[in-house]
Amino acid sequence: MTTFQTSVSVTTPATVLSRRAGETPNQVALREKDRGLWREVSWSEYWDQVETFAHALIASGVTRGDRVAIQSENRTEWVYTDLGCLAAGAICVGLYSTNPAIEVSYLLANSQSSILVVEDQEQADKVLAIPSSELPDLEKIVYIEHRGVDIIDDPRLISWDEFMEGGRRHREASPDAVRERMESAQGDDPGYMIYTSGTTGRPKGSILNLANIDFCMAEVTSDAIINPGPGPRDLIISYLPLCHIYEKLFSVLIGVGAGVPVHFGESLETLITDMREVQPTTIQGVPRIWERIHAATMVRLASASRLKRFNNAVWMGAARWIGRTLVARGGRHTIPSRLVLGLGNLFLYRSLKERVGLRRVRHAITGAAPIAPEIIEFFMGIGVPLYEAYGMTENGAIATSNRPGRVKLGTVGEAGPNVELKLDLDTGEILVRHAGVFAGYWNNPEATASTIDPDGWLHTGDVGEWVDGTHIRIVDRLKDIIITSGGKNVSPSEIENSLKASPFIKEAIVVGDGRKYLTALIGIDFEVTSEWAQRKSDRPGGPCREEDQREVRPCRADQDVPNDHQRTRSSGW
User: Fold this and answer.
1) Are 481 and 513 in contact (CB under 8 A)?
2) Facing residues of 509 across strands?
3) Could you tell me the residue ranges of all domains in the chain?
4) What tens-digit pLDDT sequence spans the chain (573 residues)?
5) Contacts of 168 (CB under 8 A, 6+ apart)
6) Are the beta carbons of 268 and 239 closer than 8 angstroms?
7) Looking at the DSSP assignment, which residues form a beta bridge with residue 467?
């Protein structure tokens, strides 16, 4: 392993990692769970793997600006690949592990990736099913797990171990090669290619250059979003897709930039168990995660013994009062609310948070989709400081966030200190400008020109409105606004959020463009609903009594439309 002080004109996560390996070589940087045991990786080991991967890329003929793709679940090799690409001057292209072969074919061909890292046989089979003539640029397929792949005969296949061994040989022969690549890096060099969801067409590759990444790393490691800012005493668990900018902010930019140990669990199925063992201090989540935790908690409380149900009812009533108090005061406690929270921790909240891995959380973030304000209020009430934030791939996920003591429920918060934000006077579209705004779409100048105007403003596609002149409330996506046959504009996400606040509803989609009325397609949460039905069927009368019907009736036509503080939508994060 070689550690060195570089004189690059821009700071990258790779240069910061090299510096940490020299300053605190033995401190824990990563933990990965395998067969029930957590294995630790120090900062020196972390950098050794990254540097070796970078040498392996150079030995394979990868030059600055070449694309290297990876399709895998979150694991240490993912971040080794990510940072190794940055160190070697390559562009890291992330693919979702759930992408089918037809999408893998498009993404690899569109990005012209020369190397693909795959996790296992399942991912290898996808790319091997694509005729090689359709992927003329793909030269190597690096597989991490051997089972089922070693026996496949394809000249492009090479194991991770063999690939890394080639990197070690190259480091012995050319020890300064990686340093020279890092020192010659420039701010406008591309670093990440992150594909959009492609909901309105083919996915587009968003290019974040090194200057964009540097800005984003500085923002998320300061106290602009997480306050106080993250540091080595914090703990992070990596579970959202690393090919998305949201998870990169935490697992890579905060992890390396602030020196926070990052934990990789065994799978999404073991997430709650892993969280319970790690007890992270900062955590990122999408609304569905928070909704599932809320629903599971409600089910657990309702299925307890009679005495426990009485205790639960008392303290959940107190939690609702605490939540309302915090909402009314921007997230600031009163002396009574703090005292009640302390007592609630003794009698209920601490055990609830311990069970789902949230006991030590000091700052939690929700983003990437709409969330019902009731969910945020619930977590605030039991002592989990959950803040809604807003961003998108094209601005490095840096735009607005609610902050401690300045929370306005139903909004996505305030613009960051180094962020310019305004609303289009005609459409209300949110426009953002800062140093993290992406360089453009890969090989798509038309789409780039329609997204970034000549003055550098990013057109987000989200319609917003000011709340008290400081906070932004997102109405909906500009293209998602429903216009009924009567000419009324309706934000479907407001209704969908209200419906999904019920623990019995997993998904809700509102349709009605050009119609006289709105219709909602409802997907029930089978796990929660079946448990409820089983619990109710164990008593005389079954689950069809009038009080039970009221319990599962989340909203009715005669109920009021949610007021302003109950409406919210966020996207991108």
Assistant:
1) no
2) 521
3) 13-185+222-283, 493-564
4) 655 444 446 899 999 999 999 999 999 999 999 989 999 999 999 999 999 999 999 999 999 999 999 999 999 999 999 999 999 999 999 999 999 999 999 999 999 999 999 999 999 999 999 999 999 999 999 999 999 999 999 999 999 999 999 999 999 999 999 999 999 999 999 999 999 876 567 899 999 999 999 999 999 999 999 999 999 999 999 999 999 999 999 999 999 999 999 999 998 889 999 999 999 999 999 998 999 999 989 988 988 888 999 999 999 999 999 999 999 999 999 999 999 999 999 999 999 999 999 999 999 999 988 788 999 999 999 999 999 999 999 999 999 999 999 999 999 999 999 999 999 999 999 999 999 999 999 999 999 999 999 999 999 999 999 999 999 999 876 655 565 544 455 657 667 666 766 777 877 877 765 566 678 888 887 767 776 676 666 655 555 555 555 555 544 433 443 443 333 333 344
5) 52, 55
6) yes
7) 471
Phi, psi of 299 (to 5 degrees): -65, -45
DSSP string, 397-444: T-SEE--TT---TTS--EE-TT-EEEE-TTT-EEEEESTTS--EETT-
CB of 491 closer than 8 Å to CB of 569: yes
Q: Which residues pair with 159 in a beta bridge?
A: 143
Nearest to 439 by CA among 204, 225, 244, 218: 204
User: Is the Cα torsion angle 390, 392, 397, 400 positive or negative in sign?
Assistant: negative
Q: CA-CA distance, 430 to 392, in Å (whole number)?
A: 12
CB atoms under 10 Å from CB of 509, counted, come to 13
Residue 531's H or E segment, with its range, is: helix 526-537
432 closest CA partner among 380, 374, 472: 472
Q: Do 10 and 187 contact (CB within 8 A), yes or no?
A: yes
Q: Which two tokens stand for residue 275?
A: 């969280």
> Degrees (nearest 5) of the Cα angle 388, 225, 354?
65
C-alpha angle with apex 289: 323 to 351, nearest 5 degrees?
Answer: 55
Report pTM: 0.85
* Residue 317 burial (10 A CB sphere; 0-12, 13-18, 19+): exposed
Alpha-carbon gap, residue 243 to 276, rounded angstroms: 25
- For 342, residues 6+ apart whose C-beta sits below 8 A from its C-beta are none
3-state helix, strand and coil shares in percent for the chain, rounded to the nearest 5: 40, 20, 40
Class in CATH terms, 13-185+222-283: alpha beta
- Phi then psi dihedrals of residue 387, to 5 deg: -120, 135
Tell me how far apart the alpha carbons of residues 161 and 39 are, in angstroms, rounded to a whole number. Answer: 18
Tell me if the bond preceding 228 is cis, omega within 30° of 0. yes
Candidates 507, 415, 500, 497; CA nearest to 460 is 415
